[in-house]
Write a structure and sequence with these properties.
Number of strands: 4
Order of helices and strands: HHEEEEH
Helix content: 40-55%
Number of helices: 3
Shape: elongated
Structural class: alpha+beta
Radius of gyration: 21 Å
């Protein structure tokens, strides 16, 4: 699996998340506008709560759409050992003592998502994460 295939897998996971969120937003909107949601007295807040939920779900839909667009904009660039770490890099961290390896895909969004690659788990990392911020601009072999 290539780096581009990993990026495609992230986009695929985000599209699946988007479908779930869109369905939830539609259901929340229907609940908010349903005739049974009309307040019967000042303490009946079912309709108000459903409208807050619908608004939150709609915002999450917009966020996921932005994340998908950001991943689609990641350039198809090959990185070499003398290039600094930037968004779009596939990074392998190795512990000096144990030799244990950890594979990371630095990208614009969807931090924490897990992918499978060459028998290893690849974790999506963003530059906003503490580890991502430390890695940006580093080179192979630097600590």
């Amino acid at each position: 699996m290539s780096k581009q295939a990993l990026i495609a897998a992230v986009i695929e996971q985000l599209e699946a998340d988007l479908a779930v969120c869109q369905q939830a937003a539609n259901e929340a909107h229907q609940a908010a506008t349903h005739e049974e949601s009309v307040a019967e007295n000042q303490y009946d807040t079912l309709g108000l709560e459903a409208s807050y939920l619908a608004e939150g779900q709609s915002r999450r839909v917009a966020e996921i759409q932005q994340e998908i667009a950001a991943w689609r904009a990641v350039p198809d660039t090959e990185f070499y050992e003398d290039d600094p770490v930037v968004s779009g890099c596939l990074i392998v961290l190795e512990a000096l003592e144990s030799g244990e390896q950890r594979m990371l895909l630095l990208g614009p969004a969807a931090g924490g998502k897990k992918l499978s690659y060459a028998g290893m788990t690849v974790t999506v990392l963003t530059p906003e994460a503490p580890l991502g911020a430390q890695l940006v601009g580093k080179y192979v072999g630097t600590a």
